[in-house]
Amino acid sequence: MAAQRQPNETPQSGSQFGKSTRRRFLSRLGMASLLASAGPVLGERSRAESAATPETKETMPAVEGAIPVTLRVNGKKYDLQIDPRTTLLDCLREHLHLTGSKKGCDHGQCGACTVHVNGRRMNSCLCLAAMYQGDEITTIEGVGQPGNLHPIQEAFVAHDAYQCGYCTCGQIMSAVALLTEPCGPEDAEVKELMSGNICRCGAYQNIIAAIQSVRQNTMPEKAG
Amino acid sequence: MKAFELSRADDPGQAIAAGAKATTAQQGAEIRFIAGGTNLVDFMKLNVETPQKLVDITHLPFDKIEALPDGGLSIGAMVRNSDLAYHPIVRKNYAVLSEALLSGASAQLRNMATTAGNLLQRTRCMYFRDTAMPCNKRGPGSGCAAITGVNRSLAILGTSEHCIATNPSDMNVALAALEATIHIRGPKGERSVPIGDFHLLPGNTPNRETVLEPGDLITQVSLPPPSPGNRSLYLKLRDRASFEFALASAAVVITGDGGKITRARVALGGVGTKPWRSPEAEAELTGQWATQAVFQKAAEAALRDAKPQSQNGFKVELAKRCLMHALKLVTQTA
Question: Which CATH superfamily is domain A151-223 in?
Answer without folding.
Answer: [2Fe-2S]-binding domain (1.10.150.120)
